[in-house]
Amino acid sequence: MEIVLDHLTKKFPGRGKNRQEVIAVNDFTFTIPDGKLAALLGPSGCGKSTTLNMICGLLAPTSGEIFFGDNNVTALPPEERGVGMVFQNYALYPHMTVEQNIRFPLENFRGKDRLSKEAMKERVLEAAKLVHIEELLERKPSELSGGQQQRVAIARSLVKLPKVLLLDEPLSNLDARLRLATREEIRRIQQETRITTVFVTHDQDEAMSISDLIVVMKEGVLQQVDSPQKVYDDPANQFVAQFLGTPPINMFDGELKDGQLWIAGEPVLRVAEGESVPEGPVSVGIRPEGFILLEGGAMHNEMVRPEITGRDVSVIFRNKAAKTDVVRSIISAEDWNHISGGEVHFDLKPAKVYLFAPESGERIRLKLEPLAQS
Ligand code: ATP
Q1: Does position 325 have pLDDT exceeding 60, yes or no?
Q2: Which segments does the entry list as coiled coil (predicted)?
């Protein structure tokens, strides 16, 4: 089921003395295609939960509309939208067994939708199998691990065969290892069921690893809606570039001058022929994998310390001329073997270098090339 948000806005009235109105969600328009998993990603307070609650029907928008397929659901109550919802605190009924917990939503079906006991049993078993907890049906929630409880909560949301699945930070109460395993599980379940899923997280790694589509937001304003790869490779602005990527993108003060990009008083790249160059200061973002180690390269750096992660080596450098800038670079283990310590020079891979307007952080799209190329 495709989900369409059309100019969706939610304002909350101000409280206290100055009664400043909060625009939690400001004019969101985007589409989540049928069968895809979208992550709503952004820092605390950016409007993720508010957006999710409007999609499920717990909150009414101030303006704008929500469509599930061709169906305008804006005025429908949650129970008529066909959504399954999982919150960060699993909210299982402690006195019920796992089986009773999963079955509970089916008990409320009335009239022609009412299911026989056998049909309910079958549905519960199907949902339990999907999340791999069919062995635990007789247990009480207190006898389960956090990860198992979260699977029960997911099974309970799937048992009604929802057209849309909504997950609000479903992994935040799990420890690091379980988080990783459970997010893979959520991806597997989503791919098996092909239920259009919206997943709220403030964790960019989580969003990058499981979603088809990332919706990046900040203070109620939509920043970018794209695939994880596109959001990483082609960020709309400095906020998106800095929010995504581990280690994070390196930021420098730079300057566009004489058809070249300068950092810390040295030219590092040149602007391609035919591009008109807006001269002046720019913010320069360089992804950690954008550095080429060289004997006589452009940027002079001292190595601070390596972080060896296996196949790659993440090295922290201090840029000599910019002094305070610490550069995080990912290089191959082979390149790492050529570093004897001390001073290192970098050249830059133009495709991994991004320019932004210093004030607004808007992307400046210029084609850059290595200096040596003529
Ligand atoms: P978090 O990651 O911390 O859960 P979030 O991105 O989910 O944050 P929301 O909970 O959607 O953010 O909140 C967005 C903004 O709306 C925040 O500034 C918040 O303080 C405000 N807000 C949310 N609910 C209400 C409410 N009922 N009344 C007034 N303001 C609210």
Answers
A1: no
A2: none
The pTM (predicted TM-score) of the whole model is 0.88
Instruction: Give me ligand 1 centre to Cα 226, in Å.
Output: 24
What count of other Cβ atoms lies within 10 Å of the Cβ of residue 354?
26
Instruction: Tell me, in angstroms, the distance from the centre of ligand 1 to residue 107's CA.
Output: 33
Ligand 1 atom 22, closest CA: 24
Task: Give the residue, 8 or 251, on which the prediction is more confident.
Answer: 8
Q: Where are the domains of the chain?
A: 3-243, 250-370
| pLDDT for the residue 185 | 85
- Spatial CA neighbour of 362 closest among 285, 262, 286, 277: 285
Right CATH number for 3-243 from 3.40.50.300, 3.40.50.1820, 1.10.1740.10, 3.40.50.2300? 3.40.50.300
Atom of ligand 1 nearest to the CA of 217: 6
Confidence grade of residue 339 (pLDDT, cut at 50, 70, 90): low
Q: How many angstroms separate the alpha carbon of residue 179 from the centre of ligand 1?
A: 24
Q: Which atom of ligand 1 is nearest to the CA of 52?
A: 11
Mean residue pLDDT across the chain: 87
Asked if the interface predicted TM-score (ipTM) of this complex is over 0.90, the answer is yes
